[in-house]
Specification:
The complex is a heterodimer of chains A (174) and B (161). In chain A, strand 1, helix 3 and strand 2 form a beta-alpha-beta unit. Chain A is elongated, with a radius of gyration of 19 Å. With 174 residues, chain A is mostly helical. Chain A has a 3-stranded parallel sheet with strand order 1-2-3. Chain A is built from 5 helices and 3 strands, in the order H-H-E-H-E-H-E-H. With 161 residues, chain B is α/β, with parallel strands linked by helices. Chain B contains 4 helices and 9 strands. The chains are: A mainly alpha (174), B alpha/beta (161).
């Protein structure tokens, strides 16, 4: 019998040994479903990342139309005070475990609106906890993909069954 | 039609209420004749300004103590333009906003332009059909493009600095 024989694929004797936490983390990091949601020019790069050239779906990253079905929120663009209430509400509607990627200078710290932008929140981490910051103005799709890989590393280190803290919530900045 | 021709027509019609600036050619009128002048600019067959291209509001600051509203008109068939200034006194803090009559019933375009000027600079357009903020949140305090604008410390619990 050769290794490629169909008889070899019955799964009859297939056994994978791993800890249940690793299994949970593996499944979580492999199906990060972002909320379909864009704020400014970074959203164009996010859409580019999801389109065929960069194809985020090969990482299991697949946009969902509802916060109830989403695991991750990509803050892709300028967060205005008018939008801040909506972002906070969408974040609160997501089921845990939930993650946030802050994409680009505006949502990291206010970006070009840092000094004179009377209308811009100086960093989305003032309203919701952020797991990964992606620098750039706007970041290229490669940078966003790198952000997702960093988030996957972070998820691999979580202890969903034995530990306590899930995400890097930092209440001092709020 | 040149600026001088347009200015001559307006002075013939409205007399000394029309002043002329030549550095950057513009006519200056007071707020109380604005509506009549605008109606004439649109309806007169020689002028026929059928397009209101832009409304700009400027705060000249507490020292000069004035605010300006600047209108840019274009006549699409005649291909001539006109800039028109209205200057009003700045209001003291806590007093009613400076008032300029609306021209939104002459050019519908003025509706949102005037809302923007109200929102960001704080000019009250009298008889406007729907004078609400257009860009900032409805519960925002103050008018951000004023020279003496102070940013609030917090908005809905979010630190602004």
């Amino acid at each position: 019998m050769t290794p490629s024989s169909p008889a070899n694929k019955s799964g009859d004797h297939g056994i994978v040994l791993l800890r249940s936490e690793e299994l949970l983390n593996w499944s979580r990091e492999s199906s990060l479903w972002p909320l379909t949601f864009g704020l400014a020019c970074c959203a164009i790069e996010m859409m580019g990342s999801m389109a065929s050239s960069y194809d985020l779906e090969r990482f299991g990253i697949f946009p969902r139309p509802s916060p109830r079905q989403s695991d991750i929120m990509i803050i892709s663009g300028t967060v205005t005070y008018k939008m801040a209430d909506r972002i906070r509400r969408l974040y609160e509607q997501m089921a845990e475990p939930r993650y946030v990627i802050s994409m680009g200078s505006c949502s990291n710290c206010g970006g070009p609106y840092w000094q004179h932008g009377y209308h811009v929140v100086k960093g989305v981490d003032k309203i919701i906890p952020v797991d990964v910051y992606v620098p750039g103005c706007p970041p290229r799709p490669e940078a966003l993909i790198d952000g997702f890989l960093k988030l996957q590393e972070k998820i691999r280190q979580e202890k969903p069954l034995t530990g306590t803290a899930l995400t890097g919530e930092n209440p001092e900045r709020l | 039609m040149s600026f001088d021709d347009i200015a001559a027509i307006l002075q013939e019609q409205f007399g000394s209420t029309i002043q002329v600036k030549t550095a950057s050619p513009a006519v200056v009128v007071s707020a109380d004749v604005l509506v009549n002048v605008c109606q004439f600019l649109r309806d007169d067959e020689r002028l026929f300004f059928d397009l209101l291209a832009c409304i700009t509001a400027i705060d000249n600051g507490p020292q000069v103590n004035t605010m300006e509203v600047i209108y840019n008109f274009t006549s699409i068939p005649f291909e001539h333009d006109l800039m028109l200034h209205v200057t009003v006194a700045r209001n003291q803090p806590g007093m009613p906003l400076p008032a300029v009559p609306t021209i939104s019933h002459i050019w519908r375009t003025a509706d949102w332009h005037e809302r923007e000027a109200y929102d960001l600079v704080g000019i009250s357009f009298t008889n406007h059909p729907d004078l609400r903020r257009i860009l900032m949140p409805a519960d925002w305090d103050g008018h951000p493009l004023r020279k003496d604008y102070q940013e609030p410390q917090r908005y809905h619990g979010i630190k602004t600095k």
